[in-house]
Amino acid sequence: MHFTKMHGAGNDYLYVDCFAEPIPIDAPGLARRMSDRRQGVGGDGLILICPTDRADAEMRMYNADGSPSEMCGNGIRCVAKYLHDHGVVRRSPLSIESAGRIYTLELKTPHGSVESVRVDMGEPILTPAAIPTNLRSPAGPDEPVVDVPITVDGREFRVTAVSMGNPHCVTFDVEATNDNVWSIGPLLETDQRFPQRVNCEFVTVISRHELRQRTWERGSGETHACGTGACAVCVAGVLTGRTDRNVLIHLLGGDLSIEWNEVNNHVYMTGPAVEVFNGHWPD
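The structure assignment produced for this chain is given below.
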């Protein structure tokens, strides 16, 4: 089976072109084997690029532990690059389906191949039941969960819950040290107040237009970038009054520019997409 390794700001996945290859029978098991950084290829997960009648392509994503995920902002940019650079679909904008939602992507090709992509991530989901989270705002059961206090491992945190097609828990009041990210992240990921588990963002505010972010992703552990997480951080920054609607976010693997448009309520993410290498997997 032919595969391609790609990354968006260091968030690396293994991609299989299912326009040319059969869709794997056991995609979760394949994701676990290929993602292993010692006995496999190594990556944050597996992404299948599949035909669909609803868009130019469909993205099917599996985390490193084999669990499916609804959306990956860095991954979908790389899908767009693969489609263009490998001649599967060469146009801009592209439409890509993920978990039933259609995303529009504008390709930046200053030297012929895709270097960066701007993704319309759609509207953020803020209703607690739709995220989903069992947390509730003091303002009412359907109001956004913004800076709500929770206790984890005997410590109190203030969190903001946002879904960008997948659930996120954003906190600004925790120093993003290895100890905090690696110890608090797994506890938040599996906290019963997030019934489908959750991605956890630890954020440092540099200014109203600039932030630093580390993410513990459900099913993958800490990743060097999280595109949907960066979008959730921008939304949370606005809701808590900490940032403006256009922000530059520094992640371990690179930078993402995020805009939460006030007119149409859509979040836009712009960032790089890089092809690392191609190979053959023996399964």
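Interim note for the steering committee: The chain has two domains: 2-122+271-280, 128-265. The first strand starts at residue 2 and ends at 8.
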